[in-house]
């Protein structure tokens, strides 16, 4: 018998997730509980650092649509309806349209990716995401040659999102990537974590994860993806361009105007634990540094 989890809230999507996880694991000829299988499959891109607990990951959140405090999303996101869900893919693509999440998931291989997540506020976690490479979806939609950036938008549904009823940000939450960043194999769309459906407070049913950038680039609960020619407006950059650049690559040498970015506090490590030294590109430099060859990272911050 399978254990009860987040999946029981949205059984249909869960079935899709689980079916794909099992299919992927089956192809590798592995046996044992689902979680162990997923872990084995993920090793190539995953860190071997110890993941944070499910409780930490799903109770210490930034999701301003549900409030400002770290505990607000876990408290308030339960009301969010995530099924049915569609993602509108448009702009410079061959096959624009409204893509139902079920259809998106049919065409992809779900993997576990254990990534570091470094928030611009100076804390970090290690999260075992379940997801697939963003580029597989973009390739399905057919990227036209003129597309240089990808813009993302989060759902706006004031009746289910108490934070949206106040003017904390100019809703919808918007983010963007340059096309080469979006097509990079480390960039994933995640639909779960710890082998389960994505908790709503973590961005159900589908969110971006870009592990070498500050966490705010990893936009949650995505309803729109647009391929565009010009660098798109992004929420935090619009809010305060001096503090939040478009690129927002993790960089210990470029401080936030109001605090240092040289070190970070690992959530769950205890109040007196020493801070960790923050790494350039959050430690993913071997894979991504070449994307920025020739760019001055203190100007393109
Ligand atoms: N996406 C939306 N739509 N709204 C948000 O407030 N917060 C961002 C990012 N994505 C945010 C969002 C920030 S600041 C961080 S650090 C990460 O989500 C946090 O992800 P987590 O709660 O899964 O750790």
From TrEMBL:
The lineage of its organism: Bacteria, Pseudomonadati, Pseudomonadota, Alphaproteobacteria, Rhodobacterales. Binds 1 Mo-molybdopterin (Mo-MPT) cofactor per subunit. The keyword Signal applies. Heterodimer of a catalytic subunit (MsrP) and a heme-binding subunit (MsrQ). The keyword Flavoprotein does not apply. This is Protein-methionine-sulfoxide reductase catalytic subunit MsrP. GO terms for cellular component: periplasmic space. Keywords: Metal-binding, Molybdenum, Oxidoreductase, Periplasm, Signal. It comes from Cereibacter sphaeroides (strain ATCC 17023 / DSM 158 / JCM 6121 / CCUG 31486 / LMG 2827 / NBRC 12203 / NCIMB 8253 / ATH 2.4.1.) (Rhodobacter sphaeroides). Belongs to the MsrP family. InterPro entries: MsrP, OxRdtase_Mopterin-bd_dom, OxRdtase_Mopterin-bd_sf, TAT_signal. GO terms for biological process: protein repair. Predicted to be exported by the Tat system. The position of the signal peptide cleavage has not been experimentally proven. Part of the MsrPQ system that repairs oxidized periplasmic proteins containing methionine sulfoxide residues (Met-O), using respiratory chain electrons. Thus protects these proteins from oxidative-stress damage caused by reactive species of oxygen and chlorine generated by the host defense mechanisms. MsrPQ is essential for the maintenance of envelope integrity under bleach stress, rescuing a wide series of structurally unrelated periplasmic proteins from methionine oxidation. GO terms for molecular function: metal ion binding; molybdopterin cofactor binding; oxidoreductase activity, acting on a sulfur group of donors, quinone or similar compound as acceptor. Its EC number is 1.8.5.-. It comes from the Bacteria. Mo-molybdopterin binds at residues 61, 64-65, 119, 154, 202, 207, 218-220. Its cofactor is Mo-molybdopterin. Residues 82-236 form the Oxidoreductase molybdopterin-binding domain. It is found in: Periplasm. It catalyses: L-methionyl-[protein] + a quinone + H2O = L-methionyl-(S)-S-oxide-[protein] + a quinol; L-methionyl-[protein] + a quinone + H2O = L-methionyl-(R)-S-oxide-[protein] + a quinol.
């Amino acid at each position: 018998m399978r254990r009860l989890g987040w999946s029981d809230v949205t059984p249909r999507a869960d079935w899709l997730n689980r079916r794909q996880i099992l299919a992927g694991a089956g192809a590798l000829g592995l046996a044992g509980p689902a979680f162990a299988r997923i872990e084995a499959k993920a090793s190539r891109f995953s860190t071997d650092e110890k993941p944070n607990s499910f409780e930490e990951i799903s109770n210490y959140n930034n999701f301003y649509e549900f409030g400002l405090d770290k505990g607000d999303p876990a408290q308030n996101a339960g009301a969010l309806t995530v099924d049915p869900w569609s993602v509108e893919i448009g702009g410079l693509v061959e096959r624009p349209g409204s893509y139902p999440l079920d259809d998106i998931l049919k065409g992809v291989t779900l993997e576990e990716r254990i990534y570091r997540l470094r928030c611009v506020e100076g804390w970090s976690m290690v999260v075992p995401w379940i997801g697939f490479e963003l580029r597989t979806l973009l390739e399905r939609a057919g990227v036209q040659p003129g597309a240089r950036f990808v813009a993302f938008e989060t759902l706006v549904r004031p009746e289910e999102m108490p934070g949206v009823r106040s003017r904390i940000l100019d809703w919808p939450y918007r983010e963007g990537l340059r096309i080469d960043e979006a097509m990079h194999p480390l960039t994933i769309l995640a639909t779960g974590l710890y082998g389960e459906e994505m908790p709503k407070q973590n961005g159900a049913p589908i969110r971006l994860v870009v592990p070498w950038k500050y966490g705010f680039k990893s936009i949650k609960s995505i309803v729109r993806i647009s391929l565009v020619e010009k660098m798109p407006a992004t929420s935090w950059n619009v809010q305060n361009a001096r503090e939040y650049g478009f690129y927002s690559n993790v960089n210990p040498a470029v401080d936030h105007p109001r605090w240092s970015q040289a070190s970070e506090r690992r959530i769950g490590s205890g109040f007196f634990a020493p801070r960790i030294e923050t790494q350039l590109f959050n430690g993913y430099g071997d894979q991504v540094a070449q994307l920025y060859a020739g760019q001055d990272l203190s100007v393109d911050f």
